[in-house]
Amino acid sequence: xxxxxxxxxxxxxxxxxxxxxxxxxxxxxxxxxxxxxxxxxxxxxxxxxxxxxxxxxxxxxxxxxxxxxxxxxxxxxxxxxxxxxxxxxxxxxxxxxxxxxxxxxxxxxxxxxxxxxxxxxxxxxxxxxxxxxxxxxxxxxxxxxxxxxxxxxxxxxxxxxxxxxxxxxxxxxxxxxxxxxxxxxxxxxxxxxxxxxxxxxxxxxxxxxxxxxxxxxxxxxxxxxxxxxxxxxxxxxxxxxxxxxxxxxxxxxxxxxxxxxxxxxxxxxxxxxxxxxxxxxxxxxxxxxxxxxxxxxxxxxxx
Length: 303
Hints:
This protein has helices at residues 2-19, 93-101, 103-106, 151-154, 169-174, 210-219, 237-250, 288-292; strands spanning 29-30, 36-37, 41-43, 52-55, 66-68, 75-83, 87-91, 120-124, 127-133, 145-147, 157-161, 179-184, 201-208, 222-225, 231-234, 256-259, 264-267. The protein is α+β, with helices and mostly antiparallel strands. Among the domains are: 2-19 and 236-292, no CATH class; 93-206, no CATH class.
């Protein structure tokens, strides 16, 4: 029985390794004056526990908090929590500086958030729509549209609606040959200062993908993405069941296996003459792994 005993010890160790540090992830954490956060947010000190790490939670309550919106993206200021774990506001200092320094160069492309991943997406809730036109308009734009005057030296014009309304049919026709760019908007606008209607403070809505929501909220796992950008559920119930089934197959010829948190023992008993085998029920204090394990009575039984 020594080889079987060795296998069980190795298998139990591999399960602990697979779970890694995720077993130590808190269900929630407090971050200064913003209150309590849950998944997909996490403290920067525990990046393995979530998708959106926040820096500064261990500092005093009023210290600035920074949030990283993507693996390779810069950190921006977290300024408010509108709806717990769903809607936040951020402030991008770099975007504000760029906008203040050169509005035409800054506004010719959309403000970029990290692209949607297999785990989550995020959206700017309140937008202002601008039109970037590389040619002279053949039709005069509606009176509520203002030209920012970027033709020289950039070679394009940028128009925006001072009322910040959704473009109507007339505007859609006039700007049909122009590019649409969108930015976070402010409540008030005027015709002179671009900083009055485009904001570096943005309200973001965080949306878990269907797979990630199912993984975290229904299977008790944590969402992950592999090197091929494919979603996987770490420590979810399906993954655990697959490991347990493999264990059951390997132990198919054994009569009884008892697993505890500190050691693994295996005992083989002679089969009854009528070839019936008994499988003892685990005690309530047994490891959660054995509570789900199915030890097969025959090596030929299919999983």
